[in-house]
Amino acid sequence: MNETYVDILVIGAGPAGLAAAQAARESGIENLLVLERENEPGGILRQCIHNGFGLHRFREELTGPEYAQRDIDAVRAMGIPVECGCTVLSVSPERVVTCVSRTKGFRVFRAGAVILAMGCRERPRGALCTPGTRCAGIYSAGTAQRFVNLEGYMPGRRVVILGSGDIGLIMARRMTLQGAKVLACVEIMPYSSGLNRNIVQCLEDYGIPLLLSHTVTDIRGRDRLEGITVSKVDENRNPVPGTEIDYECDTLLLSCGLIPENELSAGAGVRMSPATSGPMVSESFETSVDGIFACGNVLHVHDLVDHVSAESLKAGHAAAEYIRGNRPGGETIPVCDGEGVRGTVPQSIRKGAAGPVDLMFRPSGVFRNASAVVENDGREILRKKAMIFTPGEMSVVTLKEENIRSLTSGKLTVRIERS
Amino acid sequence: MMKTDILIIGAGITGTAVARELSRFRAHISVIERGADIAEGATKANSGIVHAGYDALPGTKKAFFNVRGAAVYGNLCASLGVPYRRCGALVVGFDESDRAALERLKERGRTNGVPGLEILEKEALSALEPSLNPEASCALNVPGSAIVSPYELAFAMADDAALNGVEFRFGEDARSVAPDESGAGWIVDTGSSRYQCRAVINCAGAFGAELHNMISPEKLTMVHRRGQYYLLDRAETLPFSRTIFQCPNAMGKGVLVSPTVHGNLLIGPNAEDIENPLDTATTPEGLSFVLRTAQRTWPFLSVRTNITNFSGIRAHLNTDDFAVGAVSGCENAYEAIGIESPGLSSAPAIGEYLAAMVAEDMGLKRKDEIAAYVPGPKPFHEMTGEERDAAVRSNPEYGNIICRCEVVTEAEIRTAIRRPVGARTIDGVKRRTRAGMGRCQGGFCMPRVAEILSEELDCGILSVTKDGGASRILCDTVENMLKEAGRDE
């Protein structure tokens, strides 16, 4: 089949892909293409009609669609082609990309660089192994959000939410505002994985109880959901007999975590991190496969879209530099998770890299008045104190250029130290 | 009153096999099904194994139909375009008493006429299946064991039957079967309809004994034996290339670990006798038993990649055998009940046997012409680049990917709804196309599948159901709910 060459092919026109494309164009890449499987650009922001987006990047409080529109407008103004309704089917290690769309059929591209920006998906019920029946009325929070916000349909009237991820919290408020009764939000961990502001504004403001250290232990209803049982869990997350609470409800929304959507990355042979479920990348967001970059939620799940955009701008610039033949040289220093830290990104830093470089990670638990410590070969090179480290919010420590220059062989470790 | 020559009760793997075979004869045939679709009972929730036939006791109906069914399976599936793979199986033993049991199975298999059985020793096992527990000391090698997609076979047989004139009616629950006072036949009442038929065939799965006992003086007792499963995500390389059984026991063939025809890994079932034949819930005890037991086969088993759990119910008769043939003490009444394992393996042979018997008793003539069932095109997911290109050129709807995980196109979903016995529900689309079968379990595609269903069936999206009955996926429009809540200003 005929191959069309592009310098940079961006997969996904959500906030990550749109930011990466802008940065690549700003860095002088003309032959650039963004492919998007949905019929419109904007990604999952299109259905996030609540506000709170953009405080960091635009110093304004925007809704999801408003935030997306800024990037869409910018990309249009720059004349970057964004093709919607086009699903990428495969990416090869040689950066041959196949895709299909209704209007243009099946096509093959060969790309100088590929930027993976496919986002993430929600963890479904099956991944939780929750027993009970398999009736209608059990949806991921994002699916319900799409029905309510984009299509104008209500999935149910009496709702329990399992998991206190941000989408679940947002949907607790949305369902309440639309006239449904949200009975409870149930979280298996002793803390919420959602942003604190969402717990206050979406649950507390509406009197919706948040049951920490609880989970759903039974699901009833043959055709449509009729009720669920919630039980307290012990420190090993096993249900405690005798603590059962029954809820009569017709809807159970799941907000139990997001998983980077890396089917294409895996097909390209990109090495994956078990901690993030995303590709392992260098400080310039390049994966283990030459010329394939990754950014946004496909790399690791973010809390704030502002951070997705910031990261993706860097990835876009780096891909443009790659096309020009400019790559940081020097020894590759691996970055490892130490105590209290999970999924540090990037997973490696080249000594020749320009600074600053953000080391992003999730604390593995709640730590109060603690410090994030970066060590190189056992030598402390950076320390950052914080009132609280929590798994619900991604933490960042920034390596300055002089930190990077001073690195010696051996690994970098990020850990949390209690005071 | 609906009149038909032959009424088949139940549209599972057995009912559809019988219907397909009978559709070759000149008669008016109807199939009634209590569920919303084909394959709603045990057919949609079982291990998907075509057993070679070593397990059933010689001389039983199970042995007879299993061996005959297994022999025709490959050709049948090929002609109907149904996924089937002869992947082989190992029945694994861990100690000397297991070894003795395996020897007995081998002997039984030889008596039943199963070719190729042999006992393998420890050393051979690790070479064949490196993920197998190294503590396994021996195994019965069953090269003829195969895997199949059971509901897809039932769909294809139903479509073939429908093409040849068989009528399918859903949501029809046979509540009573009684002799027709006006002639030699039967009246079947479903609450919503009454059917007058010359002959009735009971393929009612979990309800088989209940219907049998309505008409036969010889009563049967049926036990509902539930089995729970884990289904793990597809992977480039699965840990096992064969179906791995442990030694069978009185309750069944035990917990297996098996690849599926779609590249997933299936783990289960347990066996628990339950009261309610519709209670397909999974339980913490059942699932944890399956997990613990399967870890004996595969010590590194983790359910981290689990995508769904389900359970199915085997219809076990107290006779410990199938009941296939004329219903004792009745005329013009036939049955295929107690079709537990190896029922899937046996279904094609049962269909053939029962259809021949009914046709002969009723003096039916073969049709001169049979409408040829042509399997649908290759799934988009399996096409080469050139084939995909050609597919989108012929129908642009192939260019619209609806299900990301399983790469299912709009064209395939519309085709599934337009099949002779087409999908009417979200689950119906899922089982016919695999849209929603993948790792996100329909999170992304379900709203779009619902939309396509509502277009194709010309109904509002609010009436789209997951699986018929009261399983509507949506309750109302946002607008109406707001009005109801008095917040419409």
Describe the 3D structure.
The complex is a heterodimer of chains A (419) and B (489). Chain A starts with a strand and ends with a strand. In chain A, helix 1 (15-26) runs parallel beside helix 7, helix 3 (141-151) packs across helix 4 (166-177) and helix 4 (166-177) packs parallel to helix 5 (196-203). Chain A has 8 helices and 28 strands. Chain A folds into 3 domains: 1-122 and 258-327, 3-Layer(bba) Sandwich (FAD/NAD(P)-binding domain), CATH 3.50.50; 124-256, FAD/NAD(P)-binding domain (3-Layer(bba) Sandwich), CATH 3.50.50.60; 330-419, Sandwich (Immunoglobulin-like). Chain A has 419 residues and is α/β, with parallel strands linked by helices. In chain A, the strands form 7 sheets. In chain A, strands 1, 2, 5, 6, 7, 8 and 20 form a 7-stranded mixed β-sheet that branches. Chain B is of the alpha+beta class. Chain B has 3 domains: 2-43 and 150-221 and 320-362, FAD/NAD(P)-binding domain (3-Layer(bba) Sandwich), CATH 3.50.50.60; 86-146 and 223-317, D-Amino Acid Oxidase, Chain A, domain 2 (2-Layer Sandwich); 380-478. Chain B is built from 13 helices and 23 strands. Chain B has helices at residues 13-22, 61-80, 96-112, 122-128, 150-163, 208-215, 284-297, 343-362, 385-394, 410-418, 426-433, 446-456, 478-484, and strands at 2-9, 29-33, 49-50, 84-85, 89-93, 118-121, 138-142, 146-148, 167-170, 176-179, 186-189, 194-202, 222-232, 243-246, 256-259, 265-268, 272-274, 306-317, 323-326, 333-337, 401-403, 408-409, 476-477. In chain B, strands 1, 2, 9, 10, 11, 12, 19 and 20 form an 8-stranded mixed β-sheet that branches. In chain B, strands 13, 15, 16, 17 and 18 form a 5-stranded antiparallel β-sheet that branches. In chain B, helix 1 (13-22) packs parallel to helix 5 (150-163) and helix 2 crosses helix 8 (343-362). Chains A and B meet through strand 7, strand 8, helix 3, strand 11 and strand 15 of A and helix 7, strand 18, helix 9, strand 23 and helix 13 of B.
